[in-house]
Amino acid sequence: MRALILGASGGIGGALADTLRTRGAEVVGLSRRHDGFDLTDEASVARVAAGLAGPFDLIVNATGALQIGADRPEKTLAAVTAPAMAAQFALNATGVALALRYFTPLMPRAGRSVFASLSARVGSIGDNRLGGWISYRAAKAAQNQILRTAAIEIARTRPEAIVVALHPGTVATGLSAPYAGRHPTITPERSAQALLAVIDRLTPAETGSFWDWKGSPVEW
Ligand SMILES: NC(=O)c1ccc[n+]([C@@H]2O[C@H](COP(=O)([O-])OP(=O)(O)OC[C@H]3O[C@@H](n4cnc5c(N)ncnc54)[C@H](OP(=O)(O)O)[C@@H]3O)[C@@H](O)[C@H]2O)c1
After folding, report:
1. In a domain, 220, yes or no
2. In CATH, what number is assigned to the domain containing residue 30?
3. Has residue 181 got a pLDDT over 90?
4. If you average pLDDT over every residue of the chain, what do you get?
5. Does the residue 96 lie in any domain?
6. How far is the CA of 65 from the centre of ligand 1 (A)?
7. What is the DSSP string of 25-75?
């Protein structure tokens, strides 16, 4: 098994890479801080992808951000700014479309393969009861639509490929630390093991779907 982890320097991405290696997989990890792989810069994505040799049976996009620069997630509409919302979309939505464009050609044409992207339950429109965090929520909702649309197209050339959105749980990482508050968290290792168990059970009939770390479907 060969796996590619985008965002291997992150809390969950690092735990996914470690867990896969422990299982005996060959893992290629890419990150902004170690490889100059910036999902908001298409030329960087194209350059990094061109330097890789496939096929990869598993690609996980573990990049993402809740706070970008000084732009904290909004508590109210009055805090919305155009640049902060654009930055959220550049990473958490457009960036995922670029990852799909440049990395899914490295998946095998025949046989089971998985492209899983760490979305977030707060990107679910149907599940939104609290409000707030409008840019992050909207960018993750757009990511979900991008994944669903890509899944339909990719199934035409790779009938056993599975493209999914995953919610990793509330995980104790740098991303959640300022915002988790008293909300219970799980470790990145526990999240990684659970996410890989979910990925293991997925079938090609489930491409284009959204799952949480416990293996339950999440509504769009
Ligand atoms: N933690 C949670 O509770 C939680 C809950 C729901 C969903 N998620 C989702 O899970 C994913 C991973 O989160 P995490 O908690 O592991 O966060 P994290 O520890 O902050 O890791 C984020 C990763 O994204 C990378 N990244 C950020 N901006 C990038 C860019 N412009 N180009 C390329 N890579 C970039 C970081 O690279 P650098 O090391 O270079 O900064 C790092 O590898 C995110 O999509 C997040 O939205 C997390």
Report:
1. no
2. 3.40.50.720
3. no
4. 97
5. yes
6. 5
7. -EEEEE-HHHH---TT-HHHHHHHHHT-----SEEEE----SSBTTBPPPS
Cα(204) to ligand 1 centroid in Å equals 27
Could you tell which of 47, 91, 118, 190 is best to mutate to test the pocket of ligand 1, judged by most ligand atoms within 8 Å of the CB?
118
Ligand 1 nearest-atom number relative to CA 9: 43
Count of Cβ atoms closer than 10 Å to residue 57 Cβ:
17
Q: How close is the Cα of 53 to the center of ligand 1, in Å? A: 24
Residue 70 lies in a domain: yes
Residues in contact with ligand 1 by the CB-under-6-Å rule are 7, 9-13, 31-33, 37-40, 62-65, 91, 118, 120, 167-168, 170-171, 173-176
Helix (H, G, I), strand (E, B) or coil at 85: helix
User: Does some domain include residue 6?
Assistant: yes
For the four alpha carbons of 27, 28, 32 and 37, in that order, the dihedral sign comes to negative
Rounded to the nearest angstrom, the distance between the alpha carbon of 133 and the centre of ligand 1 is 16
Nearest Cα neighbor of 86 from 139, 39, 45 is: 139
Q: Does the global pTM surpass 0.85?
A: yes
Range of the domain at 41: 2-212
- Ligand 1 centroid vs 23 CA: distance in angstroms? 23
Taking residues 8-21, what's their average pLDDT? 98
Q: Looking at the 3D structure of the chain, how many domains does it have?
A: 1
